[in-house]
C-alpha cells in the first residue's frame, strides 16, 4: 500500500517532494492528469469527474489514502466527494486546511470555535476555479473571524509553468500581484493557493515586498500528513518505492518533472 498524491499536472510534485522528504520510509504513488491540465479553467462538474477518475486509479494502485495536491480539485470537488462518493475504508484529503491552520496559528486538528487572529488582511492567489469556489474563505471562516480576504485569479500562470516558460510565468505573477494590490494595497499575508506556485515563490515575495508573509503549501501538507498517519497508522504502507503515473505523454512529462524537481523522475502511462 502507498500514499496517493493526485494533481491535474506537475504542481503536486512540490507536495510529493515535501512529503517524501518528511516521510522517507513511505511509498507514494503520484498521478498527474496532464492530458486534461489545467483544471483551473474547467467547470465544477468536469473537475469532479476528472478528480474521481484519478482517485479511482490511485485506489487501483493500493492507495487507500489520497492527497488532492491540487487546490482546484480540493476547492471544487473534495467536499462533494466526501459527502457523496468516497466509500468506507478510503480517505481523500485536501491541501487547504493545513495552510489555514498555519495562517491562524492553530494546531493540526484543532476544531475549537473560530476566534480573532493576528492577521487581518490576506491576499489569496489561486486559479480562477479555486477563486470562484470560495472554498478558502469557507474553510477560513470555520477557524477565524474578522479576516479580510482579497482573492486574485491568476490566469495563465499554471500553463506557463507546465510548459517551462519561466519568463512568462514571472511576468504574469507580477501582473497579478499588481492587480491585487490595487484592491488591497497592504496585505499582511499572502496565500499561494496552487501547488504550482511555490516554484514562483521568490517572484511573489519580491512583488509583494518583504513585509508580507508568503505561505505555500508543500511543507505544511507534509507535516499534516505525518500527524495524520500518527493518528491513523492503518493508512501507512509497507513499501518504500514510489511510482509516477500520467495521462499525458510519459517521456515529455518525465522531462518536465525532472526540470521541475531538479532530480530524475520517470513517469509511466496511467
Automatic annotation (TrEMBL):
Alphabetic keyword roster: Cell shape, Cell wall biogenesis/degradation, Isomerase, Peptidoglycan synthesis
Annotated PROSITE patterns: ASP_GLU_RACEMASE_1
Residues noted as binding substrate in the record, renumbered to the chain: 7-8, 39-40, 71-72, 195-196
Pathway: Cell wall biogenesis; peptidoglycan biosynthesis
Catalytic activity: L-glutamate = D-glutamate
Catalytic machinery residues: 70 (proton donor/acceptor), 194 (proton donor/acceptor)
Domain of life: Bacteria
E.C. code: 5.1.1.3
A Pfam match: Asp_Glu_race
Family according to the record: Belongs to the aspartate/glutamate racemases family.
Purpose: Provides the (R)-glutamate required for cell wall biosynthesis.
Name the UniProt record assigns to this protein: Glutamate racemase
